[in-house]
Design brief:
Number of helices: 4
Length: 355
């Protein structure tokens, strides 16, 4: 009897109560603002810290970058009488130190430099030997106290980007110029790692991954191939944009296992990448600027099928008016500079990501 009653009244409940429930639900949806109905995009929080650093620029000096708690700028070119100069500034107390470095050769050039977890300066450089005029590729580990510095000859491998992980491993992204001039181009590893003592450790990210239809040039300059390297706590990532293809590649190596994964990502049209930071495993953020000066911040969204996309990070009005671009990370915060800086002065801002 109870089953019979339930069957008789169930159609009645569905016919009018369900109708009212749907109406109420749709009414509530219409009352909600659009932003509440769709998942909110992540945004950059208001800066928790701001600091101004002077005397960071000079003729031929690099733009300052942040790594392992330090701000670093350096002179790119040097010769026998004029050494390279590094300006190292502690983000903790603002203390500044000037370090000179000379290869004592007719000409030397620094492609990139960063600070490792021990406070040493890691240098990716090349020079012309005075004995026979041949180019030589090296990386250097400079102890600002001048106690434990050393130099490693890298043979025909030209290091173009360099960074240091918290475990002391040195990571470099580079190319073999002799190979690039060959037909066909022989394969080689573009991403390499070395121990804190300078011994070769691992090789990753084969040149053949990019294809050989377009030449690559990681040297700094107007026609350089976009190439960026970022060291995180758990992984290291390298980005390369292949000229003329509209495609970029993101390679990320997990430090614990040495496993490498590769993603392809469409290049942002009319925008140029200016900085990158790796806040965690698979958490890469990059800043871009257009020819008209518009500046944006993106997170690299990685998909399981080997493809990736640049997902925009919302910038509030007070941030967007002075956002210049990423110079690195400090802990779990992104560090960016003020675009409208006065000559020779850098103003940095620290911000976290919020959902």
């Amino acid at each position: 009897m109870r089953k019979h009653v339930a069957r008789r009244f169930l159609p009645t409940i569905r016919s009018w109560e369900w109708h009212w429930l749907v109406c109420i639900f749709l009414s509530l949806c219409l009352l909600l603002p659009l932003g509440a109905r769709r998942a909110a995009s992540p945004s950059l929080a208001t800066a928790s810290k701001e600091a101004s650093f002077g005397n960071m620029f000079g003729q031929g000096a690099s733009f300052p970058t942040v790594s392992n708690g330090y701000l670093l700028s350096f002179s790119r070119k040097a010769n026998v009488t004029q050494p390279h100069r590094f300006i190292v500034t502690s983000l903790l107390d603002g203390k500044q130190q000037s370090v000179q470095f000379s290869l004592k050769q007719p000409y030397s050039f620094i492609e990139d430099a960063s600070i490792n977890a021990s406070g040493h300066i890691l240098v990716a450089a090349s020079y012309v030997r005075s004995s026979d005029g041949s180019p030589t590729n090296v990386f250097a580990d400079l102890d600002p106290s001048a106690k434990e510095s050393f130099l490693v000859n890298l043979g025909d491998y030209s290091p173009e980007r360099i960074c240091g992980g918290p475990d002391g491993t040195v990571w470099m992204l580079g190319q073999r110029w002799a190979s690039e001039g060959s037909v066909p181009v022989p394969d080689y590893s573009m991403l390499r790692s070395y121990t804190s003592a300078g011994a070769a450790k691992g090789s990753y990210f084969e040149r053949s991954t990019l294809g050989f239809s377009s030449a690559i040039n990681f040297h700094k300059g107007e026609r350089a191939t976009p190439a960026f390297l970022a060291c995180g706590d758990a992984s290291v990532g390298a980005y390369i944009g292949v000229p003329g293809t509209g495609v970029g590649y993101w390679a990320e190596v997990q430090k614990a296992t040495g496993d490498l994964r590769l993603w392809t990502v469409p290049v942002l049209r009319d925008f140029r990448m200016t900085g990158i930071a790796l806040l965690g495993s698979h958490a890469a953020y990059a800043s871009f600027v257009s020819a008209s000066g518009e500046r944006r911040l993106y997170r690299l969204g990685l998909n399981g099928n080997g493809s990736a996309s640049w997902n925009p990070i919302a910038l509030s009005e007070d941030i967007s008016v002075h956002f210049g671009g990423l110079v690195g990370r400090d802990g779990n915060q992104l560090v960016y500079f003020t675009a409208n800086r006065t000559a020779g002065e850098v103003v940095l801002h620290w911000s976290s990501l919020q959902p």
